[in-house]
Sequence to fold (253 residues):
Amino acid sequence: MGRMLGAHDSSELDRPDLNKCPDCRCFFDGDNCPLCGKECPEEMRAGNRAKVKPQRRRSGDSGRVIFVSWYHSWWCIILALIFAPIIGIILLVTSPHKKSQKLAVVAIGVAWLLLSTFGFSLLSGIFDLFDKPVNTSLSREEYIAECDSVSVEDYYRHSERYEGDFLTASLIVKEKFTDWEQSKYNTYYLCSDTEGKYQILIRDCSQDEVSNYIAGDIIIIYGEGTDEKTVYDTEYAPISAPCINVAYIVIAD
Fold:
């Protein structure tokens, strides 16, 4: 039957002086496999088999424990890249980490740099495209013609009735505010009636050339009613009042 010498996989050395069973992967010196009894085919007999290619060696650090200095640890490199980029780059280049890992960190860093430099401005611009607090489909003449007159007192007391309505009113500018929100429509004016008794806010969404108004200016506004708004003065004191989103402003003669 022959003497069995054991099974070998492709990673082990071949025995060119012995026959090999193609099914059981074992070597023997007879005609039949001692495990399955199958006769050894000619191409698997000693001297007829192709030489086994040597197994490719694994990477030099495979299976070994590598001690990394604290300044080459990922947490240290990332902190350095954030707060001291030049030092972080030096630590990254001189670290023993794999090249693929270094490239991944560089790619993430470049992506973050581009996003922080251009991305936020781009997102702000995209938001501005959708932030249309006033109707822009009407011409100036059509818009003004749609506006109904409302008194400051009536709007102050019952602003919820006028939400979404086209309105016009004569106001006196009291104070200017610039809101924190990322929008091109972030300028507000606190205004009052001619007697200074009732105060409302207007959000400057002017579709004309934007102008700066100062305290005491008498203006005629054309806009749309909205909900109450809170703004903050230079000392960060909150001021809340009913608000009108204004599309057109005219300084009264």
User: Anything to note?
Assistant: Confidence is low (pLDDT under 50) at residues 1-11. The two ends are 120 Å apart (CA to CA). The first helix runs from residue 74 to 83. The first strand starts at residue 4 and ends at 7.
